[in-house]
């Protein structure tokens, strides 16, 4: 079962989050990306089974990356696909802003959508509106459908949109419909959680964002319940040519079944700079505490505070830490112990 990989995926995102800490607020997003990628790659090497990275963020951003087709894992079964973003919202990390996270999603081999596309148009709604919308419809029609499904007035809806110039017209139309617009920075996985978590504060996510985050979001929606549709949205001629060369229909609408063709999914998310859902890692002397969410089909949503005890190898303390250990880049090592608390049960 892919869901059994969740502890290993969480260990990987925790390592990536800790590796970013020396770079938070330093203005060097590429260095932070490189640290996150190296830490995630090292951690995933110990993951049970054989994994293949099918989509990731690095190539789009000309940043360090786990490359598409890269194999990870310690071998054996299960065989699984990975969608990765070792540092989502690099800008927030570089500026010490809110919303940077490390995130990984896994599903059985050959079930995650693999594409050379870098950008896709997305529509995400809660479970009760899953069958009521169509990404090809005008935004006003979709808003009316979501409102009816949620038993709200349109002017009671909250829409999540990436704060990008390309969304100026979309935001104007949402506000003309008297919908509240929550504008978020780079990276929309956290925005999707606001829509599909049981206590989420938003009703719909719309607009163009990264394709890797789209696949990770699809796994999240598959686990938590909800509806999601995407379609390619190339932002350059070169990207459009890549999609066409891969034989993919540039007009195709992809639903959850096309984005992730399995109910057996797991998603791990760890905060890097902190936000309403996940706080940033906190240091107390020799120890760090990270905050993560663990999502797996058929299981409760796990809200996890993990304590990572800094160990100094030449004192002999390292052997007493227990759990995994890994380099932080400052001469020490970290032992990981997780404590978890359950929340709502996943779909």
SSE blueprint and pairings:
Layout: H1 6-20, H2 29-44, E1 49-56, E2 71-75, E3 79-88, H3 90-95, E4 101-108, E5 119-125, H4 139-150, E6 158-162, H5 168-176, E7 180-184, H6 189-196, E8 204-210, H7 211-224, E9 227-232, H8 237-245, E10 254-255, H9 256-259, E11 266-271, E12 282-284, E13 287-296, E14 300-311, H10 318-321, E15 325-327, E16 333-345
Parallel strand pairs: 1-3, 6-7, 6-8
Antiparallel strand pairs: 1-2, 3-4, 4-11, 5-8, 5-9, 9-10, 11-13, 12-13, 13-14, 14-16, 15-16
Give your account of this protein's structure:
With 347 residues, the protein is an alpha+beta fold. It folds into two domains: 2-111 and 266-305, 2-Layer Sandwich (Fructose-1,6-Bisphosphatase, Chain A, domain 1); 119-259, D-Maltodextrin-Binding Protein, domain 2 (3-Layer(aba) Sandwich), CATH 3.40.190. 28% of the residues lie in helices and 32% in strands. The protein is built from ten helices and 16 strands. The strands form two sheets. Strands 1, 2, 3, 4, 11, 12, 13, 14, 15 and 16 form a ten-stranded mixed β-sheet that branches. Helix 6 (189-196) runs parallel beside helix 7 (211-224). The longest helix has 16 residues, at 29-44.
The total beta strand count reads 16
**Average pLDDT, to the nearest integer?**
87
So, the CATH homologous superfamily of the largest domain? Fructose-1,6-Bisphosphatase, subunit A, domain 1
| Number of helical segments with 4 or more residues | 10
N-to-C order of helices and strands: HHEEEHEEHEHEHEHEHEHEEEEHEE
Largest sheet: 10 strands, mixed
Shape: globular
CATH architecture of the largest domain: 2-Layer Sandwich
CATH topology of the largest domain: Fructose-1,6-Bisphosphatase, Chain A, domain 1
**Radius of gyration, Cα only, in angstroms?**
20 Å
- Number of domain modules: 2
Instruction: Determine the N-to-C terminus distance.
Output: 16 Å
Oligomer: single chain
Low-pLDDT ranges: 311-345
Structural class: alpha+beta
């Amino acid at each position: 079962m892919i869901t059994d990989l969740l502890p290993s995926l969480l260990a990987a995102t925790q390592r990536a989050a800790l590796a970013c800490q020396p770079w938070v607020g330093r203005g060097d997003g590429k260095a932070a990306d490189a640290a996150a990628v190296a830490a995630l790659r090292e951690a995933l090497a110990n993951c049970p089974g054989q994994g293949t990275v099918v989509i990731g963020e690095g190539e789009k951003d000309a940043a360090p990356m786990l490359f598409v087709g890269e194999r990870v894992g310690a071998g054996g079964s299960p065989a699984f696909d990975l969608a990765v973003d070792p540092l989502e919202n690099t800008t927030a990390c570089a500026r010490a802003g809110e919303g940077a996270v490390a995130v990984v999603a896994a599903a059985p081999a050959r079930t995650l959508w693999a594409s050379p596309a870098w950008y896709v148009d997305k529509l995400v709604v809660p479970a009760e509106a899953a069958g009521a919308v169509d990404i090809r419809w005008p935004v006003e029609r979709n808003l009316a459908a979501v409102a009816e499904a949620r038993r709200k007035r349109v002017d009671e809806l909250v829409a999540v949109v990436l704060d990008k110039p390309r969304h100026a017209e979309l935001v104007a139309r949402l506000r003309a419909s008297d919908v509240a617009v929550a504008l978020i920075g780079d990276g929309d996985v956290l925005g999707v959680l606001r829509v599909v978590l049981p206590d989420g504060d938003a009703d719909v996510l719309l607009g163009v964002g990264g394709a890797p985050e789209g696949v990770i979001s699809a796994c999240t929606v598959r686990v938590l319940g909800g509806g999601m549709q995407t379609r390619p949205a190339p932002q350059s001629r070169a990207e459009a040519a890549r999609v066409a060369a891969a034989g993919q229909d540039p007009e195709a609408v992809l639903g959850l079944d096309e984005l992730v063709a399995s109910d057996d999914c797991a998603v791990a998310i760890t905060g890097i700079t902190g936000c309403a859902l996940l706080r940033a890692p906190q240091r107390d002397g020799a120890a760090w505490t990270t905050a993560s969410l663990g999502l797996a089909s058929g299981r409760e949503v796990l809200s996890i505070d993990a304590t990572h005890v800094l160990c100094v190898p030449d004192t002999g303390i390292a052997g007493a830490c227990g759990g995994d250990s890994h380099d932080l880049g400052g001469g020490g090592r970290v032992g990981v112990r997780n404590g978890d608390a359950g929340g709502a049960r996943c779909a």
